[in-house]
Amino acid sequence: MAIQSSCMICRRDHSVDSWFEKESRGKKYPIVRCSACKSAYVWPRPTASEIEAIYSNLVEYSGANESGVYWPTAEQDARRIFRNFGPRILKAGAILDIGSGEGIASAEAVRCGFKVRACEPSPHACREFQKRLGFEPDPTFFSEEYAEENRGLFDGALLSHVLEHILDVDKFVQDMRIVLKPGSSLIIAVPHFGSILTTLMGEKDFFITPPIHLNYFSLPGLTALLKRNGFSVEASFTSSKVNLERYRNRLGPGRYAINTAGYLAMRLSEAFQKSIVLNVCATCL
Asked: CB–CB of 207/261 below 8 Å?
């Protein structure tokens, strides 16, 4: 396998090394890692037709993991994002929610006073979105054509757990710039490839799930990607996605006490920007 001479994410020369291969769906996907920005990604990239075939056969996501222990509600994630980044967007401005899913983040944006438009390719998610908000998202993938049709219309955009799925991240971010007004805000949430979890689990990090997740971003890597495509990172925070109530309900009083230390460690990781989800707000220049 030929390794790139420069990192796809940060573009630093001679910084990429082969890491390991992850088997999924009967195929092995090589993962490479950058020694400069500490990000990683699948290389070589799958083809667009391969990705399209995978998503067309993908079982609809239910919104909850099997254990019911680690994930908080998506509403909690959305509240955190808009509590931290909402004031940076023009009040009563228009926000585009890309890959909006069932509309949980869009609903929080509406609650905060923003006008919302969304795009979502999944028919199931579109139906659930309509039930939640009373209007439907545009039933499509975000693309260059979609961006051109909506050039300069938005005061803000949200990419919540989208960028880790994208084949051509540079082209995608460039298209984001098309739909945004100068000075507007782009809010991104991705799995954090600089977290304590990543350090401890290494190759077994449960966010490394090719070909669904193709890109594993550190903050320096994501910052470099945004900068070269016309954005300036203004603020960031990490979140642990730990839900104490689910610990209590799932594990019971005895085991709950044993696991409290783990819960507190994850919350402490937020204070040091080492939690498992990276949230970034960038300005469109």
From this structure: no
